[in-house]
């Protein structure tokens, strides 16, 4: 590429907030013939993605595991003995992380406090050793939430996670409204089940409604943070919001 053109290229990439490492040094798969443009892009992205490679190596069902691992490394939210609800859990990599951090995949010992991990999703979740799985269940339905409550010890949770995401339509406003609807549902559920000092972590797509949701979290939790994990794709608008220290009102 002539030097002038390559400067123009770099300017184009940077002016659109695209990370250069995302577009340079790509390996192109050799089985793209006959595939749609979006399939070709997906295959190329998968082949080049360090977190896809790492998730295969560590046996995680998808790369999302590394987002939760990174958040947990910083905020230490997952510990043995806790009750954790994972909303929007399919295929199951966050639940795999939860089970591992709570040591639910190990034989119980006298020393180990027994926690609980409940995974719920609209889609099928293949069994995860150590977790209770509610597959093909719509989280926003009252009966699903009642079922989760009935499974929680004393109907209470220490941590509620939501990585729920609607099927993207591609229309920014519609998609943002849909994901905000899901996180409000998860938050309302959290208000009902979280113990004092509990933790709420959710994914949103950055947009105009996020600020209001962030402020709502500030009124309910001692500490609220906005997080963009390294494992979150640089060209994705997803961010995570965490509320730590639930200020539980006396009933
Ligand atoms: C990004 S994926 C979650 C990935 C998961 N955290 C993991 O690590 O494997 C988002 C999930 O949200 C689920 N979802 C969307 N709306 C939902 C709802 N109303 N109830 C339950 N799950 C929902 C989708 O079916 C999808 O599996």
UniProtKB/TrEMBL annotation:
<dbReference type="InterPro" id="IPR029063">
    <property type="entry name" value="SAM-dependent_MTases_sf"/>
</dbReference>
<dbReference type="InterPro" id="IPR002877">
    <property type="entry name" value="RNA_MeTrfase_FtsJ_dom"/>
</dbReference>
<protein>
    <recommendedName>
        <fullName>rRNA methyltransferase 2, mitochondrial</fullName>
    </recommendedName>
</protein>
<keyword id="KW-0698">rRNA processing</keyword>
<feature type="active site" description="Proton acceptor">
    <location>
        <position position="203"/>
    </location>
</feature>
<keyword id="KW-0949">S-adenosyl-L-methionine</keyword>
<dbReference type="InterPro" id="IPR015507">
    <property type="entry name" value="rRNA-MeTfrase_E"/>
</dbReference>
<dbReference type="Pfam" id="PF01728">
    <property type="entry name" value="FtsJ"/>
</dbReference>
<keyword id="KW-0489">Methyltransferase</keyword>
<dbReference type="GO" id="GO:0008650">
    <property type="term" value="F:rRNA (uridine-2'-O-)-methyltransferase activity"/>
</dbReference>
<dbReference type="GO" id="GO:0005739">
    <property type="term" value="C:mitochondrion"/>
</dbReference>
<comment type="similarity">
    <text>Belongs to the class I-like SAM-binding methyltransferase superfamily. RNA methyltransferase RlmE family.</text>
</comment>
<feature type="domain" description="Ribosomal RNA methyltransferase FtsJ">
    <location>
        <begin position="60"/>
        <end position="245"/>
    </location>
</feature>
<dbReference type="InterPro" id="IPR050082">
    <property type="entry name" value="RNA_methyltr_RlmE"/>
</dbReference>
<keyword id="KW-0808">Transferase</keyword>
């Amino acid at each position: 590429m002539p030097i002038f053109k390559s400067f123009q290229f770099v300017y184009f990439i940077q002016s659109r907030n695209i990370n250069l490492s995302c577009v340079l040094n790509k390996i192109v798969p050799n089985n793209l013939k006959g595939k749609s443009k979006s399939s070709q892009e997906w295959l190329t992205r998968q082949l080049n993605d360090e977190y896809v490679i790492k998730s295969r190596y560590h046996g995680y069902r998808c790369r999302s595991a590394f987002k939760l691992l990174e958040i947990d490394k910083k905020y230490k939210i997952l510990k043995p003995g806790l009750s954790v609800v994972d909303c929007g859990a399919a295929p199951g990599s966050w639940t795999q992380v939860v089970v591992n951090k709570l040591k639910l995949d190990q034989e119980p010992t006298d020393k180990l406090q027994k926690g609980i991990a409940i995974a719920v999703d609209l889609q099928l979740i293949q069994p995860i050793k150590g977790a209770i799985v509610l597959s093909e269940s719509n989280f926003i339905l009252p009966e699903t939430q009642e079922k989760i409550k009935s499974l929680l010890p004393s109907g209470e949770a220490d941590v509620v996670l939501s990585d729920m995401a609607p099927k993207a339509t591609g229309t920014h406003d519609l998609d943002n409204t849909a994901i905000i609807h899901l996180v409000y549902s998860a938050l309302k559920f959290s208000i009902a089940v979280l113990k004092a000092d509990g933790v709420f972590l959710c994914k949103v797509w950055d947009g105009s409604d996020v600020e209001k949701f962030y402020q709502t979290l500030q009124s309910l939790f001692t500490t609220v943070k906005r997080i963009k994990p390294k494992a979150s794709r640089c060209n994705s608008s997803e961010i995570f919001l965490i509320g730590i220290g639930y200020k539980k009102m006396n009933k």
